[in-house]
Amino acid sequence: MDMGLDSGAASNSTDACHDGAAAPRVLLVIPCFNEEASIGNLLGEIAATGRRYHTLVVDDGSSDATSAVAACRSPVARLAHNLGIGGAVQTGIKYAARQDFDFCIQIDGDGQHDPRAIETLLNAYRKDPANITIGSRFIDNAGFCSTRMRRAGIKLIVLALNSLFSGGRITDPTSGMRLLDRSAIAFFAKAYPADFPEPISLAWAMRAGLTVNEVPVEMRARETGVSSIDGLKSASYMIRVLGYILLARLVRSP
To answer: What residue ranges do the domains of the chain occupy?
Structure first.
């Protein structure tokens, strides 16, 4: 993969803490595949929060102008080939590990994640530190709507994770908005699942003794594109994820 960065107008610090202590260094990892229509707006929203987060857009082999649009506001890691969401996210995690960040927060490039919720994740960590803090769509009826089949699949995945592993009670294993602390960054920099990375990464982490917490967040309808697990794909996704979770329970993760 090409880990060279295209320089952009990204900020170089964060003022996420205001208690007089040294401010933590926070990296926002933004995986993108053909998101030229949404990435500019998302980076603008991040800047509008007034928080000087570090950002890294990971262009997962896009065929459109994603990198060019993003490079106006952020460093960009351009991958020579499409690795999928798992490879794109781990690229950002490896960068976070090498650059000694305190936190790495994943935000999808399609506009579903509201950058204002970044502080929600950080505040949740301050109050109840866990190695992984997930932005959940399902706590307190946070307002997320999806198909009946997809909701049923998520419930089965939740049941499997909560039954087979300890370290936290999960409601939203497929959420792509999550905070990793230093321990989780170090763990996932070494290995990260290529297939179904959100739920499988949780199984790997909990199997290894990492802790997981959740905080309610609201997510928006995607601005462009379509979900890869809608319709009949939801059933296939659920069956395959359950198989991987069982393997993670029986076999030590990489």
So the answer is: 5-250
Structure tokens at 203: 């199984």
Alpha carbon 152 to chain centroid, angstroms: 22
DSSP 8-state class, residue 189:
H
* Distance between CA atoms of residues 247 and 214, nearest Å: 24
Return the CATH class of domain 5-250: alpha beta
Place of tokens 């993003």: 70
CA 181 to CA 25: how far, in whole Å? Answer: 11
Quick: pLDDT tens for 91-139: 999 999 999 999 999 999 999 999 999 999 999 999 999 999 999 988 8
pTM listed for this prediction? 0.85
The H or E element that residue 83 is part of is none
- Quote the DSSP letter at residue 9: S
Q: Which runs of E-coded beta strand occur in 60-166?
A: 76-78, 103-106, 132-136
Structure token pair of residue 129? 């530190």
Tell me: the pLDDT tens digits for 208-247?
999 999 999 988 875 554 444 444 466 777 888 888 888 8
